[in-house]
Amino acid sequence: MTDPITTVNPTDNTPIETYERMSDAEVKSAIQACHDAFLDWKARPLKDRAEVIKTIGQELQNSQEEFAQLMTREVGKLIGDSRDEIALCAQISQFTAETGPAELADEERDIPGGTGVVHYSPLGVIYGIQPWNFPAYQVIRYTIANLMAGNGVLLKHAENCTGSGLFLQDVLERAGLPKHLFTVLRIDHDQSDRVIENDLVRGVTLTGSDGAGRIVAQKAAEQLKKSVLELGSNDAYVVLDDADLDTAVEACVTARLYNNGETCVNGKRFIVTAKNYDAFVERYAQRFEALQMGDPTDENTALGPMARTDLRDDLHQQVEESVKNGARVLTGGEVPDRDGAWYPATVLVDVKPGQPAYDDELFGPVASIIKAEDDQDAMRIANDSRYGLGGGIFSKDEAKARKLASEQFDTGMVSINGFNIAIPNMPFGGVKNSGYGREHGGFGMKEFVNAKSVYMG
């Protein structure tokens, strides 16, 4: 038996809780129980499923403070961000309950000699592998959509937020979800591969790095199972010649530091035209330099710890390698001498290809500022990435910005003159090495269904 899972508070590295891993037999039994629950659930009318999902949203609201405090203990999120995360999960549940029955209803079409019916039939048990940076949201994002579609759901959560996964399972069951229909698996990577291989598992979804995505996608493909991947990114926020600098600086600071900088759709590369570069850099660096790290449970704290010390160390290594290859630190960039996974708000300039700060995802409070010659050059640099999840454009000419976002920006999502994380009625997902498939906006409900054709003669 492998070692148990111990969760740790990243503010001071003190242990929180220890959980025993499941045996192979327990995992197999859990998958069977989830499948059995699915067989009953898929027969429930759409409106009945929607009522349960609506109640899940209400139960999330009722549990907001307790859940938020747990997430902050486990991963170091600012307490306000944790509360906002639970509120977003409740909104997703409400949106899905309201729109799901219509989205998944049978569609009738004229066919020669009769009527065609398109029926959205659930596939079965869907397996989700999720990260630690949004312990509730990442799970709710795929779970609620698949429950609405009639599927069963398995979760392998990141080990450092095991408590949050189990808390969410309790919330769903308290809201009336049938037992076993949503099940947390406390397993290691080898066991995870065997879950994908299990015949009762019909689809796989992962949120994580592009490296993890390749491994999971390959494993799913070997089993001829569909996968949905939401992977990393180094999102570019482009400040054009005619941008309002006050708006751009404010939004770009938030875009980099939201959730302690540990968000897939955080702004990471800030591409500023020569006209605005010097002024933007000065204001931006001043804002970062003034930020103090502090207790994430204190509502006045602006920057908490990272989620784990190994993640902090990896980030610092990326900063050092970027500097070795020509980047320059304006503020931050040093590991503080204190217990916990702390890293200061850091600004890098002179960022160029060949540096991690340009090429890779820096998952933490480090901003890369890049000078562009003009608007056209800025868009070229923005698209000069293997990733394509989100991004942003700042311009006083909203029509121009919309045209650039729609026709030139090679990403799944673009914010204009602001910063957005996720909105329930808009699709969420990326292109290139940021993955494939869509969640939210009704799209996620149809990722793991059989669009079945019924020909009525």
From TrEMBL:
Domain named Aldehyde dehydrogenase: residues: 5-454
Descriptive protein name: Succinate semialdehyde dehydrogenase [NAD(P)+] Sad
The organism's taxonomic lineage, starting at the top: Bacteria, Pseudomonadati, Pseudomonadota, Alphaproteobacteria, Rhodobacterales
Family note: Belongs to the aldehyde dehydrogenase family.
EC number: 1.2.1.16
GO molecular function, one term: aldehyde dehydrogenase [NAD(P)+] activity
SUPFAM superfamilies: ALDH-like
Uppermost EC category: oxidoreductase
